[in-house]
Structure formats: structure tokens, C-alpha cells
Delta-aminolevulinic acid dehydratase
Amino acid sequence: MTEKQRPAPSFPAIRMRRNRKVDWSRRLVAENSLSVNDLLWPIFLTEGNGVLEPVSTMPGVHRRSVDEAVRAAEEAAALDIPVIALFPFTPTGKRDATGSLATDPDNLVCRATRAIKAAVPNIGILCDVALDPYTSHGHDGLLAGDVILNDETLEALVAQALVQVEAGCDIIAPSDMMDGRVAAIRAALEAAGHTNTQIMAYAAKYASAFYGPFRDAIGSSGALKGDKRTYQMDPANGDEALREVALDIAEGADMVMVKPGLPYLDIVSRVKAEFGMPTFAYQVSGEYSMIAGAIERGWFDRDRVILESLMAFKRAGADGVLTYFALDAARLLKA
Ligand code: PBG
């Protein structure tokens, strides 16, 4: 027998399987847990009444009119999901070069926010700050030639954040990746007396192909000219994410987020370890659709893969996950 083949001297005194032998023991030694308190549910909005329109690239996900969004919020609140995140579908005809609908206090997001706040006061409302649902070119900022203008965009983002907060939004989530936007929004919120509005910064947001289905859901996919690589991060980089997060914290973010999720769990883990901030991850549309598509074909055990994918975020150190599976997961966790 060679050295390598010889059993470890402690075997069988050490048997890793002892702790795994029965359910109560597995539960006893579990290092992490997943609960409904970890879930943030993104939903898509559309105009109309009684509208529940399937998003073709996201099996099981719908765009909802405001009344249906209120029903969804009621369902989420009944399951104790802490936060619902609102994303508007905007048809081509309502988009323009500057995304002016973003700052209209009567836009779809603001109307839905008011309606949900009135009907379901006990759920947190998160609103994205970025111009892409409203621009004709599909970019998150103002475009001059082929350049996304940073400082000029900040003004629009601040105005967008303010109309959303005035409509009742609890958590402002800048997803645009312009430099200095958290500071600009924080200063404007303080100046306007909105001292308790939380900011969850999309701090480390990558230029990712996994957003494909989302862009379809909000009506941006046909619109987008080029890509977002001059403002979103290069998937090759990890250290840079820590610099992004440090800046957003210094600028006044209350919570930070990493996006996408599962392919970027190394970043989630580093961010949590480095800063100890409330740290969130976004299981984005493409991740959802990969899993949901495989479930639909019968390739995955639905309940198990949903919970396993979400537990992975907890193990990496996330305090919560934005996930299109939130309602399904909450039902499973409550059962
Ligand atoms: C807007 C925004 C995007 C997502 C959230 N906010 C898309 C993008 O940056 O192109 C993606 C969410 C998802 O894919 O589920 N800036």
C-alpha cells in the first residue's frame, strides 16, 4: 500500500455521515437558514386594468396593471415578504431620448407605489432609479452621440428618485452605475426632508448577458443601442467591486447589492466579509429563466432547486435576495 492509499488514521472515528443520517440531525447542524425575511420580490408593471400579461422570456412571470400589482402586494404581505420591487414596462411610443417619463410624478411606478402604499401599508416598496425603462435608446443615462453623460444624468436620476419617494417609495435603488449618484440622491433626499428614505445601491452591477429577459419584460430589448459596458462593470473584475461598494457606502448607501447573483457569489462573499454591510444579491431575470425553463421541461425538481439556489446566497453571506421566485419560495417556506 502506498502512503496515499492508506486510510486516514482517525477513520472510522471521524465519519462525516453521522451528522447527516436523519432529518433532525441535519437540521441541528445546518449552518445557514433561509426564511421569508430574506426575500425581495421584483414585479413588472403595465398600463390598464385587470391585466396579467405573461413575459414570454420568463416562464411564470407576468406584467401586471396597477390593480393586479396591488393584489400581488397583498399576497406578498400575507406571506410576510418584506419588500416588493417595481419595474415598469414602457412601450416604444412613450419613450424619448431623455427618458422624461422617469420624472413624471404620475408615471406607472409612482401610481403603483401610491396604490400599494394605500392598500398594503406593511410591505416595503423598492423603486429602481435608472432611465432605461423610459429612454428610446434603452440606456440608463443621457446619451450624446455614443457617450453616456455622467453628471448630466445625475440630475435626472435625482429628480426620478424624488418623485418616487414622494409617491411613497421606501427604498431607492439606483441601478444606473453613474459615478456619484448615491451622493447626489442622498443630498437631495436630505434637502427635501426625506431623511429616513433608505438607499439600496446596486453597488457592484456587472455588464451582464443575464439581464436579457428583463429587457424584454420592460420593453427595452429592441430599443437598446449597443451595450452598457461603459458604465456597468466588467465580469472579469473582483477588486473593482470592492471599490464600487466602498464609494457607495461613503456616499450614503444604507444597503448594498451585487448583481447578477449566482454567477457572482464570490463578489457577494467578498463584499460581506470586507464591509459587514446589509448585503443583497439580485438573482436576475436570466438566472430565473434558466432555472424556470429547466423546471418547465421537467429537468429539475422545482421546489428543491428554488430553495437550493436561494440558500446558496445565504451561504455566500447575503442578507437577502431579490428573486422572481420570491412568492414560490415564501409558499414553500411557510408550508
Ligand atoms: C435597469 C435594471 C436592469 C435590471 C434591473 N435594473 C437591467 C439593465 O441594467 O440592463 C436587471 C434585472 C434582471 O435582469 O432581472 N438598469
Summary: Residues 128, 130, 132, 140, 175-176, 211, 214-215, 228, 284-285 surround PBG (CB under 6 Å). The mean pLDDT is 96. The radius of gyration is 21 Å.
